[in-house]
Each structure stands twice: as structure tokens, then as C-alpha cells.
Amino acid sequence: MARRLRSAKLETRTARLKLAIRKKPYTARVASGIRLAYRRNEAASSWSVIAADGKGGNWMKAFAAADDYEEANGETVLDFWQAQERARTIARGHRDADADSGKPVTVREAMDRYETDLKARDGDAYNAQRVRVHLPDTLANETVALLASPRKFRHWRDGLKKEGLAASTVNRTCAAFQAALEHAAKLDPRITCQRAWRMGLAALPDAEQSRNIIIPDDAVLRVISAAYEESPQFGLLIQVAAVTGARVSQLARLEVGDVQGDRADPRLMMPSARKGKGRKRIERRPVPIPSNLVTALKQASVGKPDEAPLLTRLDGGPWRHSDHRHPFARAVTRAGLDPAIVTIYALRHSSIVRQLLANTPIRVVAVQHDTSVTMLERTYSKHIADHADALSRRALLDTTRPVSENVVTLKRPGNRARRTSHATS
């Protein structure tokens, strides 16, 4: 434990309140290259840390209110002794005196670094954006190392629900936020408050009971036709999505060489989604497609090399996250459906249910849709039950057929007989 240093003018509230009110803070050295700063204000005064940056300069960061007018709580209001310990923690980290003394990262900076890391790992950078759009400045400007209370995270999480986000969306957003904070903690040993965000951002219960919209095949065909009215490129994207049930992120990574049309059973080598923890290797698995779709894909990729994107936007660029949202809503409206209910995921849900009801083994359905049997059973249990019911009915005993009766005489010992009837059909 670091030695507690004394400062006659700062260590008691009585001494501090005798100091003149001014913008320039009063300081006390609490470690090599680290000073605790006290700014005397008319109202609540504040503690800050001033630390050398190792390049001939220094940085300053306010972190708590002084206990001039209210009792210290160890979190937002600190006395002198608590403040100097907090200053050391921020500047160097109490676990390692030789730790990096650079400026501690804020939540906003943690999100930026997480996004950079996602791009470097070929991850989905939208995971950072989904958090950023809901992040208020008050939380974004907080120092990650000082967020030791779960209350702030819990308040933020519950606020997402109040904004009208579905429970599953809240959980995805919280998971992305946690991932960004965990990434910051891995890079900075001064961040030791992981328990705070793990508790505060805990997943909402029963969020997996999501509303999966299934639309009949004739409605799917209307949506495809309406999508082609937007543009040939968009129509082809929606046609492939409807036939394969793949996610847009998977479709965006399809390459010209993934079309295997010169065979009796044409197929697409569909890339896997970037789902799961850590780095995930992209695999390609065969998904059957009809010959008419092969023809459309071949026509759209004439003259392109095998490594070129198979599905592109009207301007020739690759499909990015949410590029499809507005044109799909327009196509759904033209198809006579409600865009507030039918999203592009309805094509995926409909594809899965279509295969289940066609008696395709559930393991095959899971592989072709890049998911697991467990997830299918959890998400589509109602439709699986309907399918099982339909199969079971084929084996039901039909009791409506006429019954005839044959009478057979069975002899017993002693020449006594009994009349017994056997029902036969």
C-alpha cells in the first residue's frame, strides 16, 4: 500500500475552507510525477489528478467532489486521504507502480478503440455504433477506471428499455458495451472495476422470446418482385435472402466464385456470420439454390473475377449494415405488408419454417442457416411442435372404419365351451 502523504492545507475540510476561491487549483504531491489538485469553488469543490505524460508535459483529470459540505461516500465525494489514493489509481494503477502513466481512457475513447479493434479483426464495427447512438455525454465522458458502481450501468440499461427497444435489442446493445469495456480493461491494468459493468449490464430475462414474423410463400414472392422494382441489384439481394435464409452480413461477403452452378445440384458456398466470442474464422458451407437463381447470379457477375463481391449496390459498392432497411420497407409496402412488422429477417424466419414443415431434418436446417439445433428449438419451438403434430397425425388410429365381428367357439376341458368375439377390421 502506498504511503499516505500529508498536506496541512488540504487534508482537512476546515483547512480547505480557509483557502481563497480561485480557478487555479491547490496541489499536493502524492507520488513521483503525480499531484493531487483541489479546486476551491463557491459551491462544491473538486479533486483532480495531475500526472506527467512521460513526454515533458502532463495531463489533468477531475474525478470527484471534495467533502467540504457533505460526508465522503468513497465514490463521488472523497476526503483528502481517499482522493490521493484515487489519484494514484488513475495515474498509475495501484497494482503496478511501473504501469503506463498515460491519460486514463474515457468511455467514449473506449468505444472508439473497440471499433478500431473490430475493424482490425474483421468484426462487425456496427457493434460499437449500436452503443454509441444511445450513449449520453455524461456517461461517455466518464473515466472507465472510476466507474466502480453498477448503478450507473443499470440506469443506462434500463433507460434503453424505456426508449422502446425490445428486450433482445437491449441485451445485444449491453453485450456490445460490455465487450468494449472489457477490451479497455485488457489494455489498461488500472481498470479493475469489471464487476460493476458485469452486474449493471446484466442481460434482461426472457429476451429470447422474440417475435419471429413468418410470411407465406406468396407474400415472399410479392416482396421479391417489389424489391426488383427498387433496382435489379436490390432485387437480387432480396431474392438470395429469401431463397437461402441467410443474414445480410453473410450475403455481403459472398464472392463471384461462391456460385457453383455448373453441376446437377447448384449451390452457393455461403460464408458464416461473425457471431460468437473472440476471433471467428469465416467458413463456407454449401446451400442449395434453384437453377433460375443461378442464371440471375451469373448474369449479374459477368466479367467479374472470382474474388469480387457477388451482390453489390446500385453504385457497385458492397452492401453495408442497414443499407437495405429503407428500400426493403418500401418494397414491403408495395407488396401490401406492414414494414413496421415485416423486416428482412422475416425472410430468414420464413425460410427456416418452410424447411421444417417440409420435413427437412432439423440438423440440416441449422447448418444451412448458420445456427444451432438448440437455437432453432428455442426460437421456433411453436412451428416445430406444429410440424411434429402434422407428422404424428399420419400415424393416428382411424376409428371411423366399420367393425365386423367374428364369433369363434373355444372349447374348454370337460367339453364346456365359451363364446368369444374378436373384432376385426
Question: Your description of this structure?
Answer:
This protein has helices spanning 13-17, 80-91, 107-120, 126-132, 137-140, 150-162, 167-187, 194-200, 217-230, 232-244, 248-252, 291-300, 325-334, 345-357, 362-368, 373-379, 381-393; strands spanning 26-31, 34-39, 46-52, 58-66, 77-78, 259-260, 267-271, 284-288, 404-412, 416-424. The longest helix is centred in the middle third of the chain and has 21 residues, at 167-187. α6 (150-162) packs parallel to α8 (194-200) and α10 packs antiparallel against α12. It is elongated and about 105 Å long. The chain is of the alpha+beta class.
Output the keywords.
about 425 residues; alpha+beta; Double Stranded RNA Binding Domain; hpI Integrase, Chain A; 3 domains; 5-stranded mixed β-sheet; 3-stranded antiparallel β-sheet; 10 strands; about 40% helix; elongated; disordered C terminus
SSE string, helices as H and strands as E: HEEEEEHHHHHHHHHHEEEHHHHHHEE
Secondary-structure-based class equals: alpha+beta
Q: Approximately how much helix is present in the residues?
A: 40-55%
Shape: elongated
Number of helices, counting only DSSP H or I runs of 4 residues or more: 17
Radius of gyration: 33 Å
Quaternary structure classification: single chain
